[in-house]
Amino acid sequence: MTKLSEHVDWYYVLREFWTIYRFNSAGGSKPIRSHKREVRNRLSDEMDKDPELLQRPAQVLPACDWLGRALDQGMLGVGAGLIRSIQRIVDQLEWEYGYQRMPPGLKPKYAYAELMSPRGPVVSEHLSLGLVLFAPRCIYPAHSHDGVTESYVCLSGVVSEGDAGVFAPGSLIFNPSHKTHRLTTGDFEPTLLAYAWTGPPEKLLHQSMKFSRQRYETRRF
Known about the structure:
Layout: E1 2-3, H1 8-23, H2 30-48, E2 52-53, H3 67-74, H4 80-89, E3 95-96, E4 110-117, E5 122-123, E6 128-134, E7 139-143, E8 149-156, E9 159-161, E10 166-167, E11 172-175, E12 181-185, E13 191-198, H5 201-205, E14 209-210, E15 217-218
Parallel strand pairs: 4-5
Antiparallel strand pairs: 1-2, 3-4, 4-6, 6-13, 7-12, 8-11, 8-13, 9-10, 9-12, 14-15
Helix pairs in contact: 1-2, 1-4
């Protein structure tokens, strides 16, 4: 185990995360503004502690075939700074499913990678950050989170939540605890999202999530 200060590329990934949550608009929403502030404050506090960085084994999944395209397209958007930082550590990321069982059709179209969480790579009991990658024409089933507030920032591609709108790069999607949400992606381009979870340490560590219409469960994203 080593400290974050010994890994400059990881340090700047987190700094770029902070920048997005500082300067992207809250759209006049007080709950979103409050959530963004909480993410920034928790992230600043954790970085000031110089947390441990665990050397987790790198892993790719079938959905990672779309990652190069997602990163290339992300360079054209407002999240380009974070995209550049991600490119510096992309070969160190452990892409996962998180599910004990995968819904039919989702396995080749979905993957996520943690950046900061109670289990690392950057260790924090108070904040979880990471990336979610979707292939084109992906349907991520309806689900909710117990005791955890979640937000996504779209870095590349487009995504719709609950068929209520289309979110392009730079958009922030906000999901309070227990809110049911379902994600779909566009027909031609992959989608890369940055996510942040806030909540009590015990909820971040032992998060249990279930799909609303299918009997699949996960303990992480």
